[in-house]
User: What shape does this take?
Amino acid sequence: MDNSNKNKRESAVINGSRFSDLSGFYEEVSQVLMKDEDWKVGTLDGFDDILYGFTGEIIWKDSQKSKEDLGLEATKKFYENKIRQGKPFNINLAKQKLADVIAGNGQTLYEILIEILESHKNITLLLD
Assistant: This one.
């Protein structure tokens, strides 16, 4: 009996030098993790969803650059955009998250992405 398919482990590389904002990150992970799909990741929830189909190792190259690119300023813009757009976003939640980030208590986009990756026990994350 051949069990090789069941134990198939993949390896993927997210290259931080190829993007400098969240939409660029989505583009990168869409190309890396969803080559054969006809849709692209465009939200944090969507990113979380595609990880359920992946088992193996994800290497994030130039993660230090991404940490800066997706840091405080990018995170503030992310929540400010949600507040400006209004529905369907939860404005009060976005305002609270923005206040938390400005106060130094909230997570940056980079930290949120890392948390999403680490929440998937089928994935080993390596920051390079």
In short: Residues 52 and 127 are 20 Å apart (CA to CA). The mean pLDDT is 93.
